[in-house]
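PT: before anyone asks, these are the final sequences, not the draft ones from last week. 326 residues across everything. Please model them as a single complex and drop the result in this thread when it's through.
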Amino acid sequence: MPSLTSRQIALFSVFAALCIGIQLTPRPPNVEVTSLITFTVGVFFGSLLAGMFGALVMFVNGFFSPWGFAGMIMPFQMAGMFIIGVTGGVYKRYVAGESTGRLCVEAAVLGAFLTLIYDIITNGGTAMLTGIPLILTFFMGITMSFIHISSNTAFFGFAFIPLLRTLQRLWER
Amino acid sequence: MGKVKFMAVRRRTLVLLALALCVWAIIATGFAGYYQIRYMKVTKAFEEIEGSIIQVDVLIDYGNGTQLWHNETKIVTGSTPLDALLIITKNVEFKKYDGKYITGIDGRVEGENSGWTWWFWNTEKSDWDYSLEAVDEYILHSDEIIKFQFVSW
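LR: through. Structure below.
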């Protein structure tokens, strides 16, 4: 477990509160910024913390989501968001020295890919719980997945770099 | 060094391109599968409906020399002659006594000494039989031939 300064802990807590607050706010189905924030936390704080961050947000979301209690899907949502956070931590080492434009495109592609992985994991959970084959679950939920992936592609592409830069400026003060 | 950096960047780009293509391929497959499932459901529903559809031949004799055949009129199993007539034309007037009784078709309405009757084709006799059943009480069978005739007496 990485050791954190009190400033880092405070910033991490603010991010967790912010992310949970946004996640629990009524919003269109499958449009969320938790993935983006978890990924950014990963780039800023590292894989382990970001993974736990994502899992925590989805754990709280499982109980208080505006779309109702997540039930047995919750562990799959936590696992999906954990992976997004860990990937953010891994991506950290590739951010330095790259142009903003390139990072925006990379973030958009990673956002799409990670959201797809997240959806496959949660669809897998649904398939396991309902007994419906995974492929059918994926096919029947493709419209919702498409909305999820499209919105996250846009969020990652347009908001990841500004969010990261803001965090860095805040940290350097 | 320059070559190494170039290779590194190229590899990174290729990885991203592969990820993007992977996302595109999986989503495209997802939509293809989704529409395949929808197609199968619609086909199955159509086959179920198709099994419950029969066809009858309907003759409308307006009593003024005009006779119109409406062959292979498709109706749902359990339909009555009135249902078949209403599929052919919406311009039907009728009254209800015990059953329904047609008073007008396509503007041709009954008078004091005239009115609408309905008949069915007797295959054994090879002739029309006058029906005593109300037009909304008789249940049609597949390939049956019926006639609505305007008669004067």
